[in-house]
Amino acid sequence: MVTDTARCAWGEIIRWQLSPTSCYAPPMSSMRYSGLDLPHPPFLPSSSVPLLSGRWLIVGIAGAVVIDVLLLLSAHLRIDISWASIGFAAWGVASGAICYAFRARATPGQRIARDFTESVSLFAAISLLGAVASYPLASGDRSFVDPALERIDLSLHFHWIRWYELVATHAWLQSVERMAYLSIFFTPALLLGHFACSGRLAESRLFIATFGVAALITLALFPLLPAAGPFATLWHGAMPYMPLSALYQDQVILALRHHAIHAVDLGALHGLVCAPSFHAASAVLYMATAWRIAPLRWPIAALNVAMLLATPVEGTHYLADLLCGMIVASLALALTPVLIQSTKPHLVSRIVGRREAIAVAAE
Q1: How far apart are CA 343 and CA 339, in angstroms?
Q2: Are residues 30 and 57 in the same domain?
Q3: Which parts of the chain register pLDDT below 50?
Q4: What are phi and psi of 32, to 5 degrees?
Q5: % of the chain surpassing 70 pLDDT
Q6: Rounded distance, CA 340 to CA 191, Å?
Q7: 3-state secondary structure the chain
Q8: Which tens digit of pLDDT belongs to each residue from 198-211?
Q9: Which of 206, 253, 215, 54 is nearest to 129 (CA)?
């Protein structure tokens, strides 16, 4: 009898936990059945987002490494052994050691350190692998699509030259744009730090997985939409202001196509993807993720709107690039929860097994 009651109680907990409307633990009074007091178990996720297994993320990273190696070999490129590559390798070893040492969550501080280290390391790995993959993908021989992108801009009444001239004639606007454009590196650290401190590991992994899916879609489209960028294509004559992205898209892509580059320096990676704009995709992902965090919602929204406004000049992007990047982010936001949902039966079976073991022990 006690066992049946315990199973009913745990069944209610599982149904509550996997409910799309649940966000926090239910009140303790709702977890008492026929005098049987079942405290909220510590291994239940703390949010309505199913906890994506760390193994899936590791498998994804390992798969990305294999794909990068194959792409580099096909383009006759290699990774340059430099202090940067040694530093990345050292960080990987150190982060793995921290996560392993604090795997038992002995104290809240250790749990925060473990979760933050894991999240930042996975996010950085996705970013690094994506940037490396863009080099062999840029070495194809497909014609640049700048004329088509410019036509889309003109149809939307967007004139890149006027936008650039506005920034070039205002030094304060250049400073603001540079800070906003570089916030792409700061915002994820803020989000991941908040998730680690608040114990929301499931949401952190969902954010990282969504970022990875967006990066994958972007890289899949990049070879189909190679472009030199509006700065290299539309501006002629003296350059009154050099954006952060400079002319790297045009120069590096042409060098790769002429086999003038043989090694990829991890310490000097440049953004080569014009369309879709990954800055635009990231801005949408950051704002969507922060929307569920009341203290960060509006600050991150304002910061990323500023980043979107800075991207045409600092990233030398067409407006069409930004719109395409926003579509990529929307697809990633829609697809990733579906992919994670496919792991839910495994999650439920694992939880049920543990619950039944506890119920038997309670008997």
Answers
A1: 7
A2: no
A3: 1-47, 347-363
A4: -115, 125
A5: 80
A6: 20
A7: CHHHHHHHHHHHHHHHHCCCCCCCCCCHHHHEECCEECCCCCCCCCCCCCCCCHHHHHHHHHHHHHHHHHHHHHCCCEECCCHHHHHHHHHHHHHHHHHHHCCCCCCHHHHHHHHHHHHHHHHHHHHHHHHHHHHHHCCCCCCCCHHHHHHHHHHCCCCHHHHHHHHHCCHHHHHHHHHHHHHHHHHHHHHHHHHHHCCCHHHHHHHHHHHHHHHHHHHHHHHHCCCCCHHHHHCCCCCCCCCCCCCHHHHHHHHHHCCCCCEECCCCCCCCCCCCCHHHHHHHHHHHHHCCCHHHHHHHHHHHHHHHHHHHHHCCCCHHHHHHHHHHHHHHHHHHHHHHHCCHHHHHHHHHHHHHHHHHHHC
A8: 999 999 999 999 99
A9: 215
CB 203 within 8 A of CB 49: yes
Q: What is the pLDDT of residue 99?
A: 87
Same domain, 228 and 80: yes
Q: Are residues 72 and 132 in contact, defined by beta-carbon separation less than 8 angstroms?
A: yes
Pairing mode of beta strands 263-264, 78-79: parallel
Both 45 and 88 in one domain: the answer is no
Q: Are residues 271 and 327 in the same domain?
A: yes
CA 293 to chain centre: 17
| Model pTM above 0.70 | yes
Whether 38 and 141 map to the same domain: the answer is: no
First vs last Cα of the chain: how many Å apart?
A: 8
Which pLDDT score, from 0 to 100, does residue 101 have?
87
Supply the range of the domain harboring residue 3: 1-50+344-363
33 and 130 part of one domain = no
**In terms of domains, do 143 and 40 share one?**
no
Give pLDDT tens digits for 265-295: 999 999 999 999 999 999 999 999 999 999 9
> What is the rounded CA–CA span in Å between residue 363 and residue 354?
15
Can you tell me the distance from the alpha carbon of 287 to that of 122, in angstroms, rounded to the nearest whole number? Answer: 20
Q: How many CB atoms lie within 10 A of CB 1?
A: 7
* 148 and 192 together in one domain: yes
Domain count, the chain: 2
Tokens found for residue 289 = 């993720």
